[in-house]
Write a structure and sequence with these properties.
single chain; alpha+beta; Hypothetical protein af1432; 3 domains
């Protein structure tokens, strides 16, 4: 749903679609524009009566796609573009204040243009979600201004702020951006890249509205960031690419906002392969009850709705902000999915007894995931709340179960401690299934760290996930975090 909204917003804001108020002299033209989606709320005549200090030749409207657009002041010659907070003839701010304020804003930006304060000119539209307007103005600057380090710095800064829109730059602007870079700026980039070899492995995440990697400038050295950007707008069409780039071909390396972003020309990225992510459709299918024939049926307690109902029951009395009901539902569902994918699905063609031997660890995993935070008293990290969760499991009348105890107690302890305990207390054919279940509950718990937001220090570190399938599940984890189970 959100991906559809963003797709429409991306079409709503663009210099290419702006229409000038000077082309709307009468109500007839105003009505014609309205039919095409341009909600001026003025004719050029009524505007001049309302705002006599501002020539209507600088007043523009973008095409409304998802909501009524506001009017923009746009002066291409001086690289000025900013929203005026006027919607369909109504001022977002008080009219008298706006009439006094707008000329002052224009005067200030005209001074910035004369003084070549490029960043100040770009800042008023840098936060616009699509990035199209900021990148459009940046393109005008790069195509018409003399190359300079100041322009390069402004371009990189605004590029960092904008999440999208780089496709609006075009070949000439990008070539001129490279020419803008001073020797000192090149040295700083080289120093930032000093920890890499001559060839760098880079990643790019894409969704349905993303610029294709063959045309894109933006990559990252962090697989986790690529997975985040592939899924951050709830795209079903999620894909992540891995490629190789030469250090010498990197235009800039940006570490702001923890994105580890590599800017490079698309033709410089070689050996591109796709890192296949798990889709929400696959996730839904695999956690549903109808997956195997009657001889290889899942235990009823591991069906998704049964898991959700059980966690609701357990957490009625647990109210720890970041580790309560919905977190535990997601951890249990992720645990169920990953065990099915990595263990049970491959065993569909194995002897039935082998399949059945894998089920006890699976059932214990689900129980441990359901109770893993049921003993928490606060959000602070510790190594004791897992055991407290198991004690709650026993208090609810469940029978003692060594595997449930191990998985619940050690999900919050180190892998080394867990392996020592596992080696001493488990044997036989079940042993490997139990260790797999441990890796899965740790990963399932970690996957839900996406709930903290990408700029948080508590956000998921993909490099710490133990299983490849868990890394492939990150886009689903992000989408599931937006769902509500109450």
């Amino acid at each position: 749903m959100r991906s559809e909204i963003y797709a429409k917003l991306n079409k709503q804001h663009s210099l290419d679609d702006l229409r000038c108020l000077s082309e709307v002299p009468t109500e007839k033209e105003q009505e014609s524009c309205l039919e095409m989606g341009y909600v001026f709320g003025f004719t050029s005549k009524t505007w001049s009566e309302e705002f006599p200090e501002i020539d209507p030749k600088y007043v523009y409207c973008s095409k409304s796609v998802i909501m009524p657009s506001e009017l923009y002041y746009f002066d291409a010659e001086h690289y000025i573009c900013f929203p005026m907070r006027i919607y369909n003839g109504e001022t977002y701010l008080y009219g008298e204040y706006l009439r006094e304020k707008l000329p002052l804003i224009i005067e200030s930006l005209e001074a910035d243009s004369r003084n070549k304060e490029y960043y100040k000119l770009l800042l008023p539209i840098a936060s616009e979600e699509s990035g199209n307007l900021a990148m459009g103005i940046l393109r005008l600057m790069l195509e018409n201004e003399e190359p300079s380090p100041e322009l390069y710095k402004a371009a990189i800064n605004v590029y960092t702020i904008c999440n999208c829109g780089a496709q609006k730059l075009g070949k000439k602007a990008i070539e001129n951006l490279i020419r803008c870079k001073s020797a000192e700026q090149r040295e700083r980039t080289a120093a930032a890249l000093s920890g890499f070899g001559e060839e760098i492995t880079i990643y790019r995440g894409e969704g349905s509205e993303s610029t294709p990697y063959r045309e894109s400038l933006s990559w990252t050295t962090d697989l986790g960031r690529a997975l985040f950007f592939a899924a951050w707008r709830e795209n079903d069409d999620v894909r992540v690419y891995e490629g190789k780039g030469r250090k010498a071909d990197v235009i800039e390396y940006i570490t702001d906002r923890k994105e580890s972003e590599i800017i490079t020309l698309p033709q410089k990225v070689q050996n591109v392969t796709q890192f296949h992510c798990i889709s929400m459709e696959t996730y839904r299918e695999l956690v549903s009850p109808v997956m195997f024939n009657t001889r290889r049926r899942f235990p009823q307690a591991t069906v998704a709705q049964e898991i959700i109902d059980k966690v609701r029951e357990i957490y009625q009395t647990v109210d720890v902000e970041d580790h309560a009901l919905e977190h535990s539902i997601r951890v249990a569902l992720h645990s169920s999915f990953l065990y099915r994918l990595d263990v049970l699905v491959p065993l569909r063609s194995a002897p039935i007894e082998r399949f059945r031997k894998a089920l006890p660890a699976y059932e214990a995993l689900i129980l441990a995931a359901e109770y893993h935070d049921a003993g928490r008293l606060d959000n602070e990290p510790d190594e004791i709340h897992g055991l407290a969760g198991y004690e709650r499991y026993l208090a609810d009348g469940n029978p003692e179960n060594e595997t449930v105890k191990f998985l619940a107690e050690y999900h919050c302890k180190s892998d080394d401690a867990a392996r020592d305990y596992w080696e001493k207390h488990f044997a036989g054919e079940d042993k490997d299934f139990i260790w797999t279940a441990f890796e899965i509950i740790r990963d399932a718990d970690a996957l839900d760290r996406v709930r903290f937001g990408s700029l948080s220090d508590d956000f998921l570190d993909v490099g710490l996930l133990r299983r490849t399938s868990s890394k492939r599940l990150v886009p689903v984890a992000m989408q599931l975090e937006q769902m509500r189970f109450e």
